[in-house]
């Protein structure tokens, strides 16, 4: 295994571990000693080669598919992650209720669930956009264009929807 590849693999391993809120010692504790902190750390630094078998076991421990740990791959195979979908809540308040009512209620529900009441912007997921498209009886791409025309979504949202539909 080339040292560059080992470093990229290690970076992926570290990213998954930190996303799960685990320290190296936390991995050792959670695995009841099966994964030693020093060994996982050496994998993450690229100082130690990991066998395919051990990589599969580590992926299973983290609860992710092995391909998520391999360099050169990203979720969904995209070259870069799609842009975030961010609703401009201040502009949404200016859209007539007969048009934006369902979106306003949906956004209020998300805010309530998250306890996020900043009132300026709200991040939504692709799944939220698909749900809203069903509510509005439109395709996600048509709804995205409508939200952009209202000034509620940034035009970059087109890339997120195009990524999703490809």
TrEMBL record:
The record's annotation in Pfam families points to: BldD-like_C (PF21179), HTH_31 (PF13560)
Which positions make up the signal peptide?
none
Which Gene3D superfamilies does UniProt cross-reference here?
A: 1.10.10.1930, lambda repressor-like DNA-binding domains
Q: Which InterPro entries match?
A: BldD-like_C_sf (IPR038099), BldD_C (IPR037664), Cro/C1-type_HTH (IPR001387), Lambda_DNA-bd_dom_sf (IPR010982)
| CDD domains hit by this protein | BldD_C_like (cd16837), HTH_XRE (cd00093)
Domain of life, per UniProt, equals Bacteria
- Domain HTH cro/C1-type positions: 13-69
Q: SUPFAM superfamilies annotated for this entry? A: lambda repressor-like DNA-binding domains
The name of this protein is Transcriptional regulator BldD
């Amino acid at each position: 295994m080339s040292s560059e590849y080992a470093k990229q693999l290690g970076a992926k391993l570290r990213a998954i571990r930190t996303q799960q809120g685990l320290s190296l010692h936390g991995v050792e504790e959670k695995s009841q000693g099966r994964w030693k902190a020093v060994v996982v750390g050496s994998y993450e630094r690229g100082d130690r080669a990991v066998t395919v078998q051990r990589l599969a076991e580590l992926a299973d421990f983290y609860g992710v598919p092995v391909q998520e740990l391999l360099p050169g791959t990203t979720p969904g195979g995209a070259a870069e992650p799609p842009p975030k979908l961010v609703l401009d809540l201040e502009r949404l308040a200016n859209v007539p209720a007969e048009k934006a009512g369902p979106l306003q209620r949906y956004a209020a529900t998300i805010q309530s669930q998250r306890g996020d009441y900043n009132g300026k912007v709200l991040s939504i997921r692709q799944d939220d956009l698909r749900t809203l498209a069903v509510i509005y009886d439109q395709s996600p791409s048509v709804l995205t264009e409508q939200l952009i025309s209202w000034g509620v979504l940034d035009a970059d949202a087109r890339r997120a929807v195009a990524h999703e539909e490809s």
